[in-house]
Write a structure and sequence with these properties.
alpha+beta, four-stranded antiparallel β-sheet, 22% helix
């Protein structure tokens, strides 16, 4: 098995976050349970587009219990220099955007859960690992 990974150039400020926009927030409380049920969380990348020095990333976070649910959808606008090809910028955004966007989502979810009057929800940090491919001999 050969490793054909190419190192990406490290350019100071080569990719910069311009802004994060909240596309949608939904918070629902249907009942007041006596005991807290199991908390479930789903974090997904709902979009990634790169081209002409611009990158847009969409992140959706859904969390809650049986009776309470919070949904947050964020869009991040990135710009990158010509030191990066579109493919390199896409790879950097794909692997690094969760580390950039998750703190925004964590703050919104935590704040909303407190305003809803439920036990505050704090999303844990996520360790991101690159997908590994396994070759069979």
């Amino acid at each position: 098995m050969t490793d054909e990974t190419t190192a990406l150039p490290m350019v100071p400020y080569g990719i910069q976050l311009q802004e994060v926009v909240v596309r949608q927030i939904r918070a629902e409380r249907t009942a007041t349970p006596a005991l807290r049920s199991e908390l479930r969380t789903n974090i997904s990348v709902s979009g990634l587009s790169v081209g002409d020095g611009k990158g847009l990333v969409s992140l959706d976070v859904q969390t809650g219990e049986a009776h309470d649910e919070i949904f947050v959808s964020l869009v991040a606008d990135f710009r990158y220099t010509d030191a990066f090809t579109d493919a390199q910028a896409e790879e950097l955004l794909r692997t690094g955007m969760l580390a950039v966007l998750l703190p925004y989502a964590r703050e919104i979810v935590h704040h909303l859960s407190m305003r809803m009057g439920i036990v505050p929800i704090i999303l844990s940090m996520v360790a991101v690992q690159k997908e590994q491919t396994h070759e069979h001999e």
